[in-house]
């Protein structure tokens, strides 16, 4: 009989359920939350309602795969908070933590509650090929987070720097919605930027050491739009600004902490223009450093990292049991 683990994640953007069998991803189900045109997000109550509506179908699909593969679920991983720190809370994660605990109890399996951020980094490390479990820097770039972290192991991370105002995803969404794009605006802004010309619109880069600001660049973008800037050129300028900004912050962090590896995770990090500019910035300033990117599909919100961390917990429990048996 095969064994596997389930993962649950319910962010402000996506309902996600994943199944890992024998350490291999067997199911990756996602349902994007629906946002009315012209809006820049959902209230937590609206998002939570959609998660409750989406989860049964995704759980049924994951369990169908487990049955076809004759797989026993031996552990569950569920995101319960945005970050692993005191006071970190969002109502949307009540859905993933609640479902995770209920399913685990029904299966008589342990439930590992983790943070949404830990799930992102676990999925990124797995899909990027980064073998180190600790001792590297991580850039978490998403709709709700723009943070530079020092990762010591999968549950021990130190916040080094990030934004003091808007996150990168908020910058993208505010400009994108002003351009008439649907929320979340990232994919459509990226496509629009493909028709833009570099340099026609230049937005300021506001970085001081390990702190980055996007409120000033966002205000500058709105002024440029009011002055008649082309939409495609503006789209490119926003992504270029983000790439240059986080590139400068990451270079400072790698240099100061004498690190050689940077893992880049989060939905905004799936953008190819931001990736290109970030890589070029680091290669130019720190030729010895190496940047690892999650696959675009596993940069976005997903439950794969939750399922993988639950699988690691299962393996560690098996090792401990064998060692106790030898004593």
Protein architecture, described:
- It is built from 10 helices and 12 strands.
- With 327 residues, the chain is an alpha/beta fold.
- Strand 7 (146-153) and strand 8 form a beta hairpin.
- Helix 4 (168-178) packs parallel to helix 6 and helix 6 (215-226) runs antiparallel to helix 7 (231-256).
- The chain is globular, with a radius of gyration of 20 Å.
What proportion strand?
Answer: 15-25%
Low-confidence stretches: none
Spatial order of strands in the largest sheet: 9-10-8-7-6-11-12
Largest sheet: 7 strands, mixed
> How many helical elements?
10
- The helix/strand series, from N terminus to C terminus, equals EEEHEHEHEEEHHEEHHEHEHH
Mean pLDDT: 94
What is the count of β-strands?
Answer: 12
- As a percent range, the share of helical residues equals 40-55%
Measured on Cα atoms, how large is the radius of gyration? 20 Å
Which overall shape is indicated by the principal axes computed on the Cα atoms? globular
Q: Report how far the terminal alpha carbons are from each other.
A: 28 Å
> What class would the helix/strand composition place it in?
alpha/beta
Q: Which terms summarize this structure?
A:
327 residues, alpha/beta, 7-stranded mixed sheet, 5-stranded mixed sheet, 10 helices
Précis, in short:
It contains 10 helices and 12 strands. It has helices spanning 44-68, 93-107, 116-128, 168-178, 186-193, 215-226, 231-256, 272-285, 296-299, 304-326, and strands at 2-10, 14-21, 24-32, 71-81, 111-115, 136-141, 146-153, 156-163, 206-208, 211-213, 261-265, 290-293.
């Amino acid at each position: 009989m095969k064994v596997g683990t389930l993962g649950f994640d319910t962010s402000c953007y996506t309902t996600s359920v994943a199944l890992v069998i024998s350490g291999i991803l067997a199911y990756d189900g996602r349902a994007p939350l629906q946002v009315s045109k012209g809006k820049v997000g959902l209230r937590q109550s609206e998002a939570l309602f959609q998660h409750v509506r989406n989860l049964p179908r995704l759980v049924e699909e994951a369990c169908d795969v487990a049955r076809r593969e004759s797989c026993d679920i031996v552990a569950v991983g569920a995101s319960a908070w945005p970050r692993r720190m005191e006071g970190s809370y969002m109502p949307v994660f009540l859905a993933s933590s609640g479902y995770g605990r209920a399913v685990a109890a029904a299966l008589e399996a342990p439930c590992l509650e983790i943070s949404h951020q830990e799930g992102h980094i676990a999925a990124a490390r797995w899909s990027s090929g980064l073998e180190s479990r600790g001792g590297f820097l991580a850039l978490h770039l998403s709709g709700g987070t723009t943070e530079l972290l020092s990762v010591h192991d999968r549950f021990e991370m130190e916040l080094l720097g990030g934004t003091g105002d808007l996150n990168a995803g908020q910058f993208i969404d505010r400009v994108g919605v002003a351009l008439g794009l649907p929320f979340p605006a990232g994919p459509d802004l990226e496509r629009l930027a493909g028709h833009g010309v570099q340099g026609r619109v230049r937005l300021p880069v506001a970085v001081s050491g390990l702190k980055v600001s996007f409120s000033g660049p966002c205000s500058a973008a709105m002024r440029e739009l009011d002055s008649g800037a082309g939409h495609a050129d503006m789209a490119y300028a926003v992504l270029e600004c983000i790439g240059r900004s986080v590139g400068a912050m990451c270079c400072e962090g790698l240099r100061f902490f004498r690190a050689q590896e940077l893992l880049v995770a989060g939905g905004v990090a799936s953008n190819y223009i931001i990736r290109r500019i970030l890589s070029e910035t680091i290669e130019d300033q720190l030729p010895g450093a190496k940047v690892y990117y999650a696959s675009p599909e596993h940069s976005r919100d997903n439950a794969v990292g939750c399922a993988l961390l639950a699988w690691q917990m299962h393996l560690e429990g098996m090792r401990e049991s064998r060692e106790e048996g030898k004593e």
